[in-house]
Amino acid sequence: EMGDNPNSHYQRFRKPCRHDKKRIRQMSNLLPEIPIQRKLEYLMKTNTLGEGLPREVVELLLEYGQTFTAAVPTPHWQAPEPYWQCFNTACAIGLAGEGYLYAEGIAMCFGNIGNPMLHAWNVDSATEHLYDFTWPMAPWNQYLGIVFDLAWTKEYCAMPHGIFHSENWSRNRDPIREYLASQSQANTDTPRD
Length: 193
Fold this sequence. Notes:
Layout: H1 11-14, H2 18-30, H3 36-45, H4 55-64, E1 66-69, H5 86-95, E2 100-108, E3 117-124, E4 130-131, E5 142-148, H6 150-156, H7 166-187
Antiparallel strand pairs: 1-5, 2-3, 2-5, 3-4
């Protein structure tokens, strides 16, 4: 029985017994790990992205996105927020100004088994480690997204369903492209003569 917690099915991965550990290891050895970028490229090529992933957003993330993996569980993994609250939770944590930046993009839970979906998480500004407060922190999760600074998050982040959602994409398209252009301009180290 799952109980009231929608994330309770993840609890078995928190402290698996030796038999579960063996099954998990065997399953992960059977599935070749496909990077999230390759899976997204394949889905675009075969026109099977699904309604929740706008093609233009996927192309933007493939061009500008940064990949993340959750290598180790965090203390917050013990009691994650409900998965459908990822945008609100990550935004609230990013706006708190305590060193966690807001990141949004596409994630795949359970590696190659899961379908890519729009998702939001946080990145520690000092260590660049990923913190996901709505999914279990597991090494088989893959993330492809853009990390937004605090000023940009304050101005554009307060919206349901996230920045890249089809309901919000039309009004966010230009500000995101301007943000990415300003970030790449700031990151160029080319000396000028």
